[in-house]
Specification:
318 residues, 37% helix, 13-stranded mixed beta sheet, alpha/beta, Rossmann fold, globular
Length: 318
């Protein structure tokens, strides 16, 4: 029903129709990744998260005060006018401002560029688009990690958030997180602590993507071509039958909303001691049963984690 290929540095299992690809990293050349904090929320995230060794932090904002304490390798102050002109540009070439050109030079040599931003503010969402445009011009693959405003923050901010997301989708795929959900899951947590937790949740894909090697770049690009909007959730299980238990948790997940939406593809990161290609195949097939369509799935398998629970991170493209 599928074929298993071995090559130097990696294993791969692929279904006959090519819909499911399972990769198991074995000493692959790592991806070179830059994480870019954009605006207030993005720079706050850089302060709150710990990134794997080798990943570079960069910070951009229209307010110099946002850049304090981010420990970024490089910082740029970019005016709101430049940020918005880049975001709204229809040109696939430079948008005509020096900031975009300077940033594209700064991003040269990276395989992936991952901006983090809060949508709805005055500059973070626009800056995320500028970063993604600059990444594409420097031949890097961008993936934005963005949050949407709280319901209580008002219609003006939600309207601006929608406009910023529309601009962002022209240049990249984005993983979208609803800030309301963190307060629903942890209702009694003070707001500032909740935002710190949310920053760590938002950054989850960075660590997972860091485990991929150069051979997976084409697979990722294929998924990003299929969908420009992704949602994410993480599930763990340490008892019997993790395949059914984790898939059922994903089915009920408010973060993914699989019952309400129509997924187009999925990227799954499966970690745990003793996980293998058979389990990954079974998990993927069970996952597709929860979908309305027979969607393509990319799986990264990591059996090097010395813990008994199985941990699955799902990025679902809508």
């Amino acid at each position: 029903m599928g074929r298993f290929m071995q090559g130097e540095g990696h294993h791969e299992w692929m279904s006959e129709d090519g819909k499911i690809v399972i990769r198991k990293g074995m000493g692959q050349s790592p991806l070179k990744i830059a994480v870019v904090g954009c605006g207030g929320m993005g720079c706050n995230a850089l302060r709150d998260i710990e990134l794997p060794e080798g990943i570079v932090k960069l910070a951009v904002s229209s307010d110099r005060n946002d850049l304090t304490g981010t420990h970024a390798k490089a910082e740029m102050v970019i005016g709101e006018k430049d940020a918005m002109s880049s975001a709204m540009s229809s040109s696939t070439r430079y948008a005509g401002n020096d900031s975009e050109m300077q940033l594209s030079y700064l991003l040269k040599g990276y395989d992936m560029v991952i901006p983090i931003a809060g949508l709805g503010g005055n500059n973070g969402g626009w800056l995320a688009s500028l970063v993604c445009r600059a990444a594409r011009m420097s031949k890097a693959t961008p993936l934005a990690l963005v949050t949407t405003p709280l319901s209580i923050e008002g219609s003006e901010k939600r309207h601006r958030s929608t406009k910023q997301l529309e601009a962002l989708r022209k240049w990249t795929s984005a993983v979208i997180y609803k800030n309301d959900l963190i307060f629903k899951e942890i209702p009694n947590l003070p707001m500032m602590k909740a935002f710190k937790v949310m920053n760590k949740v938002v950054a989850t894909p960075v660590g997972e993507i860091n485990g991929l090697g150069q051979e997976a770049k084409k697979d990722l690009k294929r998924m990003f071509d299929i969908s420009h909007i992704f949602r994410m959730d993480v599930a763990e299980w340490r008892a019997d039958d993790p395949v059914m238990a984790i898939n059922e948790e994903f089915r009920r997940s408010g973060w993914l909303s699989l019952d309400l939406l129509d997924p187009k593809c999925a990227i799954l990161f499966i970690r745990g001691f003793g996980v293998n290609e058979d389990m990954a195949q079974e998990f993927s097939l069970e996952f597709t049963k929860k979908m309305k369509n027979d969607i393509p799935i990319l799986v990264h398998l990591d059996d090097s984690v010395m813990v008994k629970e199985i941990r699955v991170t799902a990025l679902v493209g809508l």
